[in-house]
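Lecture notes, continued. The same structure-token format from the folding unit now serves as the input rather than the output. Read the line below as a description of shape only.
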């Protein structure tokens, strides 16, 4: 799937004398939340007809686009399309990829198991991804269950072709995570992912996607909430607050250390919330569980090395 190409193709459908908004393009993709992604892509890439895409207020974000729109018969004043309602184009044709992905999330969410898989929990892996333009560095760090000893660590560079869209992080990051996971030997008993599991708008975040796709127990550990409401905030390190969505407990806000900033733990796949919280809490020497913290450091370190190599080649 090439969401960037789909956006470019949609924009090319806007005829002279008409304009669309970033929200219109996002809705043609299948989800209005993709509007910021559409803006970023059109800002960074040449696309035929991009000057005909404006903000929902009619504001024109592109230098020189106002003059071009006037030549095409669009009324422009003060850097804004003044008759947006009359000239607005929304009759797009396309595969509506994000709508299809939402349907896929719903199907796969039914496969998530919220009970503990039988077996030991001796090898715990954390995965993280750092970005450098269209490239990403994925890192995996495998540790003992106390987070005291690194058993294995690796990183690799991956080309990313799916833009960031809230609610669809799995489609951006999982290919890189999967490549790291396949190289681990032996495989970890449980995987921690920097992101949500079932505590997600589709109840199927990246931790759940990874767990179902890899058929392995996974835990989602996120720094920020996407959905849900926390109960009474934890007062002491180690305390947790239930995170509810539509009245159901789907996660836990864990105060993992002296900081009052919580981390949000949720079931990914093949694990109970109670076990997910227990494992996460045991691994926290700082706010972030050690496998994730070290994976983040490794990914960032390798990203900087890649950037330095690029600079050397230029000189």
């Amino acid at each position: 799937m090439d969401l960037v190409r789909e956006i470019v193709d949609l924009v090319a459908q806007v005829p002279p004398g008409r304009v669309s908004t970033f929200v219109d393009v996002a809705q043609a993709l299948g989800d209005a939340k993709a509007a910021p992604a559409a803006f970023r892509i059109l800002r960074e890439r040449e696309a035929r007809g991009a000057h005909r895409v404006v903000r929902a207020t009619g504001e024109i974000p592109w230098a020189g686009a106002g003059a071009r729109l006037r030549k095409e018969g669009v009324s422009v004043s003060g850097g804004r399309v003044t008759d947006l309602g009359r000239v607005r184009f929304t009759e797009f044709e396309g595969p509506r990829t994000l709508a299809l992905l939402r349907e896929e999330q719903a199907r796969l969410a039914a496969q998530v198991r919220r009970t503990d898989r039988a077996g030991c929990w001796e090898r715990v892996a954390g995965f993280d991804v750092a970005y450098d333009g269209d490239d990403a560095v994925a890192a995996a760090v495998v540790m003992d269950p106390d987070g005291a000893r690194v058993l294995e660590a690796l990183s690799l560079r991956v080309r990313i072709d799916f833009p960031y869209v809230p609610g669809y992080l799995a489609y951006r990051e999982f290919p890189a995570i999967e490549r790291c996971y396949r190289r681990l030997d032996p495989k970890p008993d449980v995987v921690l992912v920097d992101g949500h599991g079932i505590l997600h708008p589709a109840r199927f975040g990246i931790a759940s996607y990874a767990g179902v796709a890899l058929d392995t127990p996974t835990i989602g550990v996120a720094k920020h909430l996407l959905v849900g409401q926390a109960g009474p905030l934890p007062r002491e390190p180690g305390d947790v607050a239930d995170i509810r969505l539509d009245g159901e407990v789907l996660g836990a806000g864990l105060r993992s250390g002296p900081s009052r900033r919580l981390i949000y733990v949720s079931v990914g796949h093949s694990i109970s919330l109670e076990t997910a919280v227990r494992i996460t809490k045991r691994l926290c020497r700082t706010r972030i569980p050690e496998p994730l913290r070290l994976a983040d450091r490794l990914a960032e370190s390798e990203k900087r090395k890649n950037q330095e190599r690029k600079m050397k080649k230029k000189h």
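Point for the exam: The chain has two domains: 3-95, 109-309.
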